[in-house]
Amino acid sequence: MDIYLPTGLQPALLRPVCVHLHGGAWFAGDRAFGVFGSPHMGEALANAGMIGVTPSYRLGALKGQGSPHAHVDDCVAAVRWVLDHISAFGGDPDRVFVSGHSAGGNIAALLGSSGAARVVNKLPDGAIKGVICLSGVYALKQVFEGLRGFQEFVIRDSMVPPNFGDNCRDLHENSPCSILGMSFDEHELAQYSTEEQNSILASPSVGPRKNLPPFLLVNAYFDLGLDAVARRFARLLNHHGAVVEQHVVSDLGTNHATLNWTGSTHNATTDFINRVIAHLNDPSKPVSQPKSRACMLDLF
User: Fold this and answer.
1) In the list 148, 181, 183, 278, which could disulfide-bond 188, CB 3.0-4.6 Å?
2) DSSP label at 116?
């Protein structure tokens, strides 16, 4: 775990904290590798006067670690450590946020939305003040709606089985859309057979948190179709009463990988954190910015 501190840190002034989770399709990546974005995000947070924390986590999940939840367990433990110890580094444990890119966005979304005991027992409602997901993967079993054969192959067929296997309950517990929509949404239900639905619904940890934090969902202009999945995730978050914004970066040269390095992505992240904090200090101030501003980020 690496900690990025702002210059001129004053012990008496506790700073907001954001734990950023790197991507890598659940089987690659590390907090130290610039290509996976953690150093860029950590530095951007520190430059904005915040504290960035970038953990690594186990990769390979079911195939490599013997558990389809190893990556989530590690990230839960990292955020729990931050809550318990970050004040010693000048961080405010009452203003902790979580962000993540790609597979890390999937994990960040799970930490903010899942009602599974493995998550909420260590990170109760209110512990995470907001979630920022960059090109997150929010569905595992039927990732895309409509005719998106290539994208479906890239994510569902080539990445999901080696990491999670094919057990319906494991796929459900690692799919934020399934967690939020299983109880009512026809698209989420249709992914599973009747037998699978009964198995999932028999589980004590099938649903979302009772109180969801605000979410910021950011996608690249070229993003493997994941912007459409983000819209689906946003609808489900709205159904459960969460405040959610979705941004799509307008620069034609920005793709799924480079989104993690761009200044506008970093600015959107810190701006969102500041707006959530302002709302926490004064509930009359809205978290969401006007839709005319929230629909697009301009990198020029």
Assistant:
1) 181
2) -
* CA proximity to 227, closest of 136, 149, 154, 98: 136
Bridge partners, 98 (sequence order): 19, 131
Q: Identify which of 106, 8, 90 has the alpha carbon closest to the alpha carbon of residue 51.
A: 90
Tell me how far apart the alpha carbons of residues 67 and 82 are, in angstroms, rounded to a whole number.
24
Residue 129 per-residue DSSP state: -
In this structure, the number of other CB atoms found within 10 A of the CB of residue 143 comes to 27
Q: pLDDT digits over 97-122, tens only?
A: 999 999 999 999 999 999 999 999 99
Amino acid identity for residue 43 in this structure: E
- Alpha-carbon distance of 1 to 81, in angstroms, equals 10
Q: Residue 217 phi/psi, 5° resolution?
A: -115, 120
HSE, CB side, 13 Å, CA atoms: give it for residue 256: 18
Q: Hey, where are the domains in the chain?
A: 2-138+211-297
CATH number of 2-138+211-297: 3.40.50.1820
Alpha-carbon span 140 to 159, nearest angstrom: 9
Which two tokens mark 194? Answer: 């009747």
Whether 130 has a pLDDT exceeding 80, the answer reads yes
Give the tens place of pLDDT for each residue, 191-234: 788 888 888 877 766 789 899 999 999 999 888 788 888 999 99
* Residues 171, 168: Cα–Cα separation, whole Å: 5
Question: Residues 256, 226: contact at Cβ < 8 Å?
Answer: yes
Please name which of 140, 175, 171 lies closest in space to residue 158, comparing C-alpha atoms: 140
Look-up of token digits 């953690």: 38
Could you tell me the two tokens for 223?
């993003």
Note the pTM of the prediction, 2 decimals: 0.91
